[in-house]
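Narrative of activities, Objective 1.

The group set out to show that a structural description can be obtained from nothing but a protein's sequence at a throughput compatible with the screening campaign. Below is one input-output pair from the validation batch, recorded exactly as produced.
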Amino acid sequence: MRKFTRILALGSIMIGLQACETVKEAAEALNTGTNTTPALTNSEVISGLKEALTVGIQNSVNLTSVTDGFLKNDAIRLPFPPDALKVREKAIDWGLGSQVEKFETTLNRAAEEATKEALPIFKDAILNMSISDGFSILNGGDGAATRFLKDNTTSKLVAAFSPKVKDAISKVKLTEYWNPIITKYNSAMSLTGGEKINPDLNQYVTERAISGLFQMVEKEENKIRKDPAARVTDLLSKVFGSVKK
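Output recorded for this entry:
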């Protein structure tokens, strides 16, 4: 009888230990989320990131390629060319302030026109995204998707923007406001022995338009990363909701 009691007690202890181990495993599963959050497939990651980038670039192009898209956005507005600020100061001194203002406005109009060319270039880069690219972007933190686009589209954007900027400069009559300013300035420099200035407006507008566009893309990307409300589809919610904070 005493032997039977010992066996019964030992059995109870073993059952108790096994139960504790089961509870421990369940708790660990809850903590890691393995019982509630299925792992993302490669296909889901790539599809989700392509969707996020498409939303981001579409919003960015829509915001920048309209009238005042650059001009009224202080974050990306094109100012007077930095290497010609002396020209601006002199022009204002000579009573050409309205010409300066019109010139700065048309700089931004040219950028707004050129930005319309960006969408197909961005979409091509997105279509060619690899699985490795996808996971690097997903886990790369703020701006990772924008850096991917910069690496894969900048040279193409410059090639596409440059002729469009040239056309836009003509369309918005940029030189009508620029030529009187720069001609008067350089004439004065000829008399005083100062340095003449002739900045490449086409290059300036192209570079600043691309820079401003990427700035807006990054803003849209980070919004999707941080704000669940910006994840406008179930797939976006699933993919970006899986990233550890």
